[in-house]
User: Fold Glycosyltransferase EpsE from Aureliella helgolandensis.
Amino acid sequence: MPDCETYEVTVVMAVYRGIDTLPVTLASIMQQEDVCFEVVLIDDGNTPVDREALISIAAPYPNVRVIHNSANRGLTKSLIAGCEAASAPFIARIDNGDLMLPNTRLRQQADLLRAHPEVGIVGGETEFLDLINGGRYCSKFGRRHYPCGETDSGAMLFIHVTVMFRQSTYQTAGGYDAQLRVGQDTDLWPRMLRVAEGVVEPIVYAVAPMGPNSISVKENNTQIWGKISRIWHEEHNGGNLIKRVFFKTSRVIPEFLKLLLPAGVRVRMRYQKHMNYLGAIAPEVRKSLSNIAAFYAIKTEK
Assistant:
């Protein structure tokens, strides 16, 4: 990283448990080139032992700040605190346990936002490691442009750990909703696109391992109930009442059925439907989440 008097990008990441994966995630962030950035880590009410470990891991990096929550407040409120503490005009996201790729990601996204002041948020592709079933997948969005005023939330393909957004757009849109425990990202994107344009680049910007303790797995029931609620409360002007109820019911029933399935089956269904299969995960990577260090070394050598 060049010598910096001010920062162009603030990377915001909440940390609760999972301290063993933090060194690898932080190392992947520190590989970013040609950009002045800071990292704001939110200690979300960790135990004293984990808190000390977090401080020790962050200590070698002068551009890392640690904010401490007095108790576990959850991801959404931690991200709100991190964004409030951000000093840079652009905010990037990554989660503990994930890898930031390539080493020019922050530079590429910041350049796009600077070159296009009408764009308020930019995202990219993600490679997922299904540690439950042992498969590797990659999102297949391609390049997408969302005009200001886009209203189809189902078409907003921004993966949280790949995004960078303007702090001004975030604030104008009202920021993360503190009332939401999960789904804070899919709630925020439509509000951002009411005030700015959005872009998804066809570049892998993050590697995300999905294990039994991942938020997307642990909180999947809550996410499904949230989706059911959104479907049921959507406004449809066409057709009579019976047709509208039938249309909503036909979309809600499959979501109810998902609640009956084991987590591994849900994960496999999600990836096989929406993503490209890249092959099996190497046994040493699947064995332990901490072994993503080996996977990270392989990816960065390419």
